[in-house]
Amino acid sequence: LAPLLLLSALLAACSSLSPEEEEQLEDFRLRATQYYESDDLARAEQQAVRGLALDPEHAELNHILGRTLLKYQDPRHVIAAIGYLEKAYELDPKYRTAYSLGECRLRLAELRVKRAVTLDLTSSELGPGEAEGQEELAGRAEKLRAAAVEDLLLAEEYLLIARESDSDNI
What we know:
Elements: H1 2-15, H2 19-37, H3 41-54, H4 59-72, H5 75-91, H6 95-125, H7 131-165
Helix pairs in contact: 2-3, 2-4, 3-4, 4-5, 4-6, 5-6, 6-7
C-alpha cells in the first residue's frame, strides 16, 4: 500500500500546474466569466477552451463553457454543452452545476419537441401518394418526442437536486 501512495503522490506532483500556469488559468477563468456576462459568447468560449487546455478537470471552466454554449440556444451548441456541464457537475456537484444541467436538459427537450412538430407539419404537407415519406417522418418525430421525455426526466432530476441543495435560491 505504501508504494501505491508514493506513486499516487508522485503522479499528482508531476501533473500539477506551475504557479505561472495557475495564474494563466485564473486569467482565462476571469476573462471567460466577463465575456459570458457581457454576452460575448465567442470570446467566452475561446477563453474557457484555452483554460481547459491547461486543466481539463477545472470545474468552473467546464461550467462556464457549458453555460456559454447553452446561451447560443441552437441544437448543436446545446448538445455540446451537456458534456461540459456533466463534467462540471461530476467535479463539483453543487446547486449551480445541477441547475445548469437541468436547464440544459430542459432546453434540449424543447428543441427536440420543436423539431418533432416541424416534422409533423412537413409530413402533413405530403400528398396521399407519399405514405412512405409520411411514415418515415412520423417515426423520426416519435423518436424525438421519446428523447425529449428522457431529457425532461433528467431535467427534473437535476432541478430537484438543485432545489434540495439550496432551497433558499429557488
